Hints:
Order of helices and strands: HHHH
Strand content: under 5%
Shape: flat
Amino acid sequence: MMIGGDFYMGLFFEKREQQSAKSIVLLRILIVITMGILLIMGLINGLSFTYFKFIFIVAGIGSLIDGIESLVQRGSKRVYLVEFGFVILWFTLAFLYWGN
């Protein structure tokens, strides 16, 4: 039986059966750094939605990469369907802010 925080941490940080390739890990790090820079630039410029739409696009690209990786590694069908669901969510949010 998992105690409190262990259960919730297991929901978000699950152990993978196969490790990611070093190039995928490097790409994820670059995506997180890019999102951080865009977030800081958006906050400095007075909550400019121009930067936030690019954050959503970069998040969508990151989820797309994760989904393709789990599909190639023949992971659980649930995992890559959730990732592709996040792709649709991130790109939808980006296009909602596109006019602003």
